[in-house]
């Protein structure tokens, strides 16, 4: 029988960078131009099937980006197995905010947490303020996964979640729930998601990557 894993994933980042839109694209392959800001956090699940037939179920916590909800964030990233820290490629300040989230995760989250830095809104490249070189250099220095996505077009969305699923420790017992099946810390290496081939699609409708 193929193995099944379950991991807790949290999305962090400044308000309006597109965290909720990324999750909506990943889970339902949909995009809504007029999504309201998340209040507190939203919870969704999605399953990814890997090349070896095993499945990874993500329990996804999409946190609010507004400053007034920042104090709630540790509740969601505590015991998280992985985090996607999102910035908007058209807003340089959002990358600085992403850096502060990453520092917080490195200080307070599980030392073995898998962190991916995600530059969203790649469809707005004409308005780019954050270069790929700058973001990738930072990700490499911090041992983070990195990639760019467009929640609007779907580009790169399935890739980033599939790459995380592949990187998560595969020694957890079947149906491990969140931190309960957490193995020990593993070494961190930078991974350029934009140079990886597209992986397996999610079990729901595949993203149009």
From TrEMBL:
Keywords from the UniProt entry: Cell membrane, GTP-binding, Lipoprotein, Membrane, Nucleotide-binding, Prenylation, Protein transport, Transport
Keyword Protein transport tagged: yes
Composition bias, Polar residues: 199-209
Compartments, as annotated in UniProt: Cell membrane
GO biological process, one term: protein transport
Membrane topology: Lipid-anchor
Biased composition (Low complexity): 173-190
Cited NCBIfam families: small_GTP
Descriptive protein name: GTP-binding protein RAB5
Species whose genome carries this gene: Obba rivulosa
């Amino acid at each position: 029988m193929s193995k099944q894993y379950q991991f807790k994933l949290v999305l962090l980042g400044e308000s309006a960078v597109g965290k909720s839109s990324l999750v909506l694209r990943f889970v339902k392959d949909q995009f809504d131009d007029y999504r309201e800001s998340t209040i507190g956090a939203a919870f969704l699940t999605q399953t990814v099937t890997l090349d070896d037939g095993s499945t990874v179920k993500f329990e996804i916590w999409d946190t609010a980006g507004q400053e007034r909800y920042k104090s709630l964030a540790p509740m969601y990233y505590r015991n998280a197995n992985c985090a996607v820290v999102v910035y908007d490629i058209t807003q340089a300040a959002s990358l600085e905010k992403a850096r502060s989230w990453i520092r917080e995760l490195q200080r307070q989250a599980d030392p073995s947490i898998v962190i991916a830095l995600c530059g969203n809104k790649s469809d707005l490249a004409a308005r780019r303020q954050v270069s790929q070189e700058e973001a990738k250099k930072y990700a490499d220095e911090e041992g983070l996964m990195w990639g760019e996505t467009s929640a609007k077009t779907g580009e790169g969305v399935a890739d980033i979640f599939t790459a995380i699923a592949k990187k998560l420790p595969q020694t957890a017992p079947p149906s491990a729930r969140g931190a309960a099946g957490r193995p020990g810390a593993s070494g961190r290496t930078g991974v350029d998601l934009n140079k990886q081939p597209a992986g397996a699609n999610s079990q729901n409708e595949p993203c149009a990557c």
